[in-house]
């Protein structure tokens, strides 16, 4: 390998691959992050793509990006600003110019910067000059013409040849970060097992890019990021949707139940249904229903019949499922509803992230209708919280809402895989077949959960349904009975608090400012708070995963800080919820509703401003 | 052995301790009684029955059955029942629904369950009116019907249940009249034995809001002449004196004729084939309306085909046979992983 004149050792670096939605940027980014993970870096990734499958070519609306943040120490976010931007066309410059670190590296495909494309992206003549990027480390690589030359003897049609452009670019980036090509080469050999020509073409393009980068002097400095110091164990990269699906399968195994998913495809939740549909080997029954309502209703039927039943959706779908969630509350059947939040209201921003369904999750039903609400906070802890949601649903005989979001669903990070023996057993509260007569709404004293009487067991025949019932299961309109049952259902959910962990404080337990987050904004908040702590500020973080009921120590934790700021990607829903639940505190807010996560900068600036206010 | 066990039930064994609260004279009472009679004949243990309903007068049905029962929400019983059956194909799953519940708010689930041919038995109580909400028109109300929400008469065409079922690729369709307990019981038994979605339309009388809506054909005095009870392999003969029959006119159209008139004899009369996969004739039979035709009762169509619930089960079993991943630990360690330390 060629010598490297300047090598910069860095703690962390952010790379963004960006191009047309047909340019293969998602694959390029995924291959790069897998290679980095295998090398031992910690990392976090985020794909950012348009809702349209193929938006008009060359336009800013059609730009698809994939950001990778890798480092030598713990990485919690995909990063705000990129050190390296790979731009396959002028529109990619347009979409990302303000997200490049000053002085960063820009690699672009010169062959795609035709007058027409420049105009399509909304530039006059030269995107680099117009964006004032000329002081940056700009590398105009003739990617299109180089792949044409490299693959001229392959007998491929011009379209197939140009499809390898992304691999040429990836080869350049591998050289820049001194990474091995083997993982990527193996990937193509596997993928094109029956088309050795295609495998070879991609490998040749990849190597051509690598050697091109080595040859040109311009591509310096190169970066060196040492492997991260991470706990021993077996690791894999995982995104939030897959981790969620796996958490449910693990719960089913630990509960001795079969897993049923009734669902309807909806962005960004579809990955959960797809993953579970593929897992017939583990016995998963997947039911792609005719609509969102049938998704949850088939699941409720399966729950009645004794399966661990879940349904997955996103905000608009959750709206459609509201009535059936009410039925689940009334019938007191275990079911998990996963809501992978996206920008709303209505169709909103289907591929973008937001945390604006909290009130819908907590209250969006008719009647007094409490459900347990949990929220995952990183792509990999989606596994843990899916498992937890299933455990609580089954053991407490209640619907549980699990909130994820587009950012968690599509983001990936390395995950130390657990051993199944280390996960807790889940104990379904089966009805006793010798109990005569069987009373469907009789409860255990500790949890107030009713028992689960599965069809097929003689002696347990009973009727449940959406009408108010007495403990015997008889329909009742008696005023006092209704109030009693409303209270019992609420108390049952409240009692879940006895079994959930206390709120954890990241940082000192007393201080000037407590940053409060929930769910998916954890990564950005912890990064910002750690930086503030390093700069000497008395700031700590709590991030809620258990939303309803809240952990028992909230008051104790909050009372140790002079100020509290609640940060969330909505207009203040969790802050308002805390104002109801813990009125004794004053809450400041940091809110953002742009369909994108916070930046570290957003959070730090807000915190410093609050700290400075007397 | 389980298969040889005989269950000696009487209809009473299927009665729950709940007081039946339908209006006196409501057709639902007779349906309940027919179903309880039919279940006795099936040789299925009581704990294997699950009755699922939506919302409407008829949907109170599960409360009166001493079986597993789930009274769900408006229109969604089909989806709930589909979930029950897919989760446990060994259960005998019955859906109780009405013309509003199944065809208006639940129309989507209804056609998709039929398309999937999931093995559930759907008893659709058709009284052509909304009873529980006190008298509004339904998707099966005759055009022009005056109701509380159509004070000047409806201006929309009604669904014909059989037409919709066959259009949705239905493989079992039968029709009966609430008061004909013997015929109804026989049909429920056949529906239960059929593998796949069975739809039974019950012409049911709402004594309060649409009283006598089916009298034109169902009244004792006229029913023999205005209905035909179809039986597989039997000529399509009807009438008090068995002197009328159905013929195929010009290969395209059914015609009701009088035997002995215009030269028609028994030889010209069509023979009912319940099991014919091509639904052409069955479709015409299902759509016959009085006064041009007698209304068809009995099992009009019953065709075997793969069922969804068993297909799901077999697909899982098939994949499991050759799968490398046998448990979660296998999955967690599969694919691209790396070790640290």
Description:
With 614 residues, chain A is an alpha/beta fold. Chain A has 21 helices and 22 strands. In chain A, the strands form five sheets. Chain A has a seven-stranded mixed beta sheet, with helices on both faces. In chain A, helix 5 crosses helix 9 (196-215) and helix 12 (292-304) runs parallel beside helix 13 (315-331). Chain A is globular and about 85 Å long. The model of chain A has no long low-confidence stretch (mean pLDDT 94). Chain B has 341 residues and is of the alpha/beta class. Chain B folds into two domains: 11-234 and 274-310, Rossmann fold, CATH 3.40.50.970; 236-271, no CATH class. Chain B is 28% helix and 20% strand. Chain B has helices at residues 28-40, 77-87, 99-103, 107-116, 161-167, 181-193, 215-218, 223-226, 280-286, 308-322, 328-332, and strands at 49-53, 68-71, 92-98, 120-126, 129-130, 136-137, 172-177, 198-203, 227-230, 237-238, 244-249, 253-258, 295-302, 338-340. The mean pLDDT of chain B is 95. Strand 17 of chain A pairs parallel with strand 2 (68-71) of chain B.
């Amino acid at each position: 390998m060629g010598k490297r004149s300047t090598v910069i050792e860095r703690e962390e670096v952010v790379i963004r691959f960006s191009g047309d939605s047909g340019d293969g940027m998602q694959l390029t980014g995924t291959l790069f992050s897998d290679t980095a993970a295998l090398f031992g870096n910690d990392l976090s990734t985020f794909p950012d793509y348009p809702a349209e499958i193929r938006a008009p070519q060359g336009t800013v609306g059609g730009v698809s990006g994939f950001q990778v943040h890798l480092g030598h120490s713990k990485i919690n976010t995909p990063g705000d600003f990129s050190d390296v931007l790979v731009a396959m066309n002028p529109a990619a410059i347009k979409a990302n110019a303000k997200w490049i670190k000053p002085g960063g590296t820009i690699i672009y495909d010169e062959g795609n910067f035709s007058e027409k494309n420049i105009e399509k992206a909304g530039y006059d003549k030269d995107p680099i000059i117009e964006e004032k990027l000329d002081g940056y480390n700009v590398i105009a690589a003739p990617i299109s013409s180089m792949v044409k030359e490299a693959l001229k003897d392959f007998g491929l049609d011009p379209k197939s040849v140009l499809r390898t452009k992304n691999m040429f670019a990836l080869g350049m980036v591998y050289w820049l970060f001194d990474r091995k090509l083997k993982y990527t080469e193996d990937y193509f050999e596997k993928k094109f097992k029956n088309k050795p020509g295609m495998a070879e073409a991609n490998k040749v393009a990849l190597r051509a890019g690598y050697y091109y980068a080595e040859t040109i002097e311009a591509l310096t400095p190169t970066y060196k990021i040492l492997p991260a110091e991470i706990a021993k164990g077996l690791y894999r990269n995982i995104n939030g949707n897959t981790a969620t699906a796996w958490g449910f399968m693990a719960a089913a195994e630990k509960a001795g139940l079969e897993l049923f998913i009734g669902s309807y495809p909806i962005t960004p939740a579809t990955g959960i249904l797809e993953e579970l549909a593929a897992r017939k080997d583990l016995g998963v029954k997947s039911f792609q229903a005719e609509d969102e309502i049938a998704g949850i209703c088939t699941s409720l039927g399966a729950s009645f019949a004794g399966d661990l039943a879940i349904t997955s959706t996103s905000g608009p779908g959750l709206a459609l499922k509201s009535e059936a969630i009410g039925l689940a509350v009334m019938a007191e059947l275990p079911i998990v509803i996963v809501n992978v939040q996206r920008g709303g209201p209505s169709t909103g921003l289907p591929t973008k992230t937001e945390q604006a369904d909290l009130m819908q999750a907590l209250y969006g039903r008719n009647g007094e209708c409490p459900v347990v609400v949990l929220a995952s906070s990183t792509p990999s802890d989606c596994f843990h919280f899916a498992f937890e949601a299933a455990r609580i649903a089954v053991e407490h005989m209640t619907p549980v809402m699990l909130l994820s979001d587009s950012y968690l669903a599509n983001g990936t990070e390395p995950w130390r895989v657990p051993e199944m023996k280390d996960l807790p057993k889940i104990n379904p509260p089966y009805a006793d077949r010798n109990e005569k007569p069987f009373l469907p709404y009789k409860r255990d004293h500790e949890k107030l959960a009713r028992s689960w009487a599965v069809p097929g067991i003689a002696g347990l025949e009973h009727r449940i349904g959406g009408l108010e019932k007495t403990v015997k299961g008889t329909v009742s309109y008696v005023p006092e009975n209704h109030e009693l049952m409303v209270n019992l259902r609420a108390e049952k959910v409240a009692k879940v608090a006895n079994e959930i962990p206390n709120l954890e404080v990241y940082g000192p337990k007393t201080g000037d400012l407590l940053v409060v987050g929930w769910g998916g904004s954890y990564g950005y908040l912890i990064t910002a708070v750690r930086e503030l702590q390093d700069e000497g500020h008395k700031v700590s973080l709590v991030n809620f995963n258990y939303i309803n009921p809240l952990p028992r120590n909230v008051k104790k934790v909050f009372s140790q800080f002079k100020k509290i700021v609640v940060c969330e990607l909505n207009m203040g829903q969790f802050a308002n919820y805390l104002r109801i639940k813990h009125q004794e505190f004053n809450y400041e807010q940091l809110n953002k509703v742009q369909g994108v996560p916070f930046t570290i900068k957003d959070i730090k600036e807000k915190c410093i401003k609050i700290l400075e206010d007397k | 052995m389980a298969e040889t066990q005989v269950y000696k039930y009487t209809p009473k064994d299927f009665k729950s301790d709940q007081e039946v609260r339908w209006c006196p004279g409501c057709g639902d009472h007779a349906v309940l009684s027919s179903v309880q009679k039919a279940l006795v004949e099936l040789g299925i243990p009581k704990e294997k029955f699950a009755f699922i309903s939506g919302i409407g007068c008829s949907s109170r049905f599960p409360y009166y059955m001493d079986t597993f029962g789930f009274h769900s929400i408006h229109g969604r019983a089909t989806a709930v029942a589909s979930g029950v059956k897919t989760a446990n194909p060994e259960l005998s799953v019955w859906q109780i629904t009405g013309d509003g519940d199944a065809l208006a708010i639940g129309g989507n689930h209804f056609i998709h369950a039929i398309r999937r041919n999931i093995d559930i038995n759907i008893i659709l109580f058709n009284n052509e009116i909304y009873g529980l909400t006190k008298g509004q028109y339904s998707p099966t109300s005759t055009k022009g019907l005056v109701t509380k929400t159509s004070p000047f008469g409806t201006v929309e065409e009604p669904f014909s249940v059989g037409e919709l079922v066959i259009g949705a690729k239905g493989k079992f369709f039968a029709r009966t009249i609430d008061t004909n307990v013997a015929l109804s019981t026989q049909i429920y038994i056949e529906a239960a034995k059929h593998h796949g979605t069975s739809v039974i339309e019950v012409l049911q009388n709402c004594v309060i809001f649409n009283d006598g809506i089916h009298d034109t054909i169902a009244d004792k005095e006229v029913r023999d002449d205005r209905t035909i009870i179809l039986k597989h392999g039997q000529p399509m003969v009807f009438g008090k004196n068995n002197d009328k029959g159905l013929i195929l006119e010009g290969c395209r159209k059914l015609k009701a004729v009088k035997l002995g008139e215009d030269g028609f004899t028994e030889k010209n009369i069509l023979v009912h084939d319940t099991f014919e996969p091509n639904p052409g004739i069955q479709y015409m039979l299902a759509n016959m309306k009085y006064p041009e035709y007698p209304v068809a009762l009995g099992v009009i169509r019953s065709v075997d085909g793969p069922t969804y619930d068993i297909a799901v089960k077999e697909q899982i079993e098939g994949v499991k046979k050759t799968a490398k991943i046998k448990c979660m630990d296998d999955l967690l360690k599969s694919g691209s992983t790396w070790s640290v330390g």
